[in-house]
Write a structure and sequence with these properties.
The chain is of the alpha/beta class and 296 residues long. The protein is 31% helix and 21% strand. The protein has one domain: Alpha-Beta Barrel (TIM Barrel), CATH 3.20.20.70. The protein starts with a strand and ends in a 53-residue tail after the last helix.
């Protein structure tokens, strides 16, 4: 399968913005988020990853109107919504706005019983965000920490959560390349699909992530590289299509096994297959000519 690309649209005070390592006050603004979202959709993106940064920082759901505008403007492109989803009301509000999937982050640490219930009730419409610095999970807009990445992953998978979004916080917004070694450990520790976020800067970074698709990597969230004009969504989709594994060329493996990964201390035994069944910054213009390869 081809690795899914999820261009990111982060919402801050009603504008598209990008932060450095998720730190408030490091943002760069990119104007109207609907313009950014429709630009990505026009280039062929099938999913968008939309984050309410204000909600993540505990400032309240200031950007739901804009999420609704994005959903309405980009259909049939699907929207994955994230940021500040800590209660059932938050989750239901985003689903009612038309989000195809909602990512729950902080609550996975603070209210794991509710997260398990939400996963059971909403199935594929819920993913769990595992934002970490190394093995230490980050919460509340990455302003608080606590919990071991692999212990929480194991617990939530056992509780029935079907998909995880892993962000390496130290790489987010840095354009320093994805943390592929850590990501490989995460993939080895779960039988559920994983979406990666943080650090992608070049098409070669996407190629590196594509090599992890047979191990269960389902998608890659890309933000700053698109806004900075490192490449376009069109470029990224073409690259991922070229790198898609050819199932007929893969070596055969016994049923229930997958590509080997480095062992992870304390990781659960792997079984089955995934497939069956992220004030005051400078302001820049959002992408205006997607097909021309302008800043995306």
């Amino acid at each position: 399968m081809t690795l899914e690309l999820l261009p990111a649209v982060d919402l801050l005070d009603g504008q598209a913005a990008r932060l450095v390592q998720g730190v408030a006050g490091t943002e760069t603004g990119y104007g109207d988020p609907v313009e950014a979202a429709t630009g990505f959709a026009a280039q062929g993106a099938r999913w968008l990853h939309v984050v309410d940064l204000d909600a993540a920082f505990g400032r309240g759901p200031r950007n739901r109107e804009h999420l609704g505008r994005i959903v309405a403007a980009v259909g049939p492109v699907q929207v994955e919504a994230s940021g500040g989803v800590r209660t059932a009301d938050d989750l239901h509000a985003l689903l009612e706005l038309g989000a195809a999937r909602v990512v729950i982050g902080t609550a996975a640490l603070e209210d794991p019983e509710w997260v398990a219930e939400a996963c059971a009730r909403h199935g594929e419409a819920v993913a769990v965000g595992l934002d970490a610095r190394g093995r230490t999970l980050q919460a509340r807009g990455w302003t608080a920490s606590g919990g071991d990445l692999f212990e929480v992953l194991q617990r939530l998978e056992a509780a029935g959560c079907r998909r995880f979004v892993h962000t390496e916080v130290a790489r987010d917004g840095m354009l320093t390349g994805p943390a592929t070694d850590r990501l490989a450990q995460v993939l080895a520790a779960t039988s559920r699909p994983v979406i990666a976020s943080g650090g992608v800067a070049t098409l070669d970074d996407l190629r590196a992530l594509a090599t992890l698709e047979p191990s269960g990597l389902e998608g890659a969230i890309v933000g700053k590289a698109l806004y900075a004009g490192r490449f376009t969504v069109t470029d990224a989709l073409a690259t991922l299509a070229e790198e898609a594994p050819n199932p007929s060329a893969r070596p055969s493996q016994p049923p229930g096994t997958r590509a080997s990964q480095p062992p992870v201390a304390g990781a659960p035994e792997r079984e089955g297959s995934r497939r069956g069944g992220g004030a005051g910054g400078a302001v820049h213009s959002p992408p205006t000519h997607p097909a021309d390869g302008g800043a995306g």
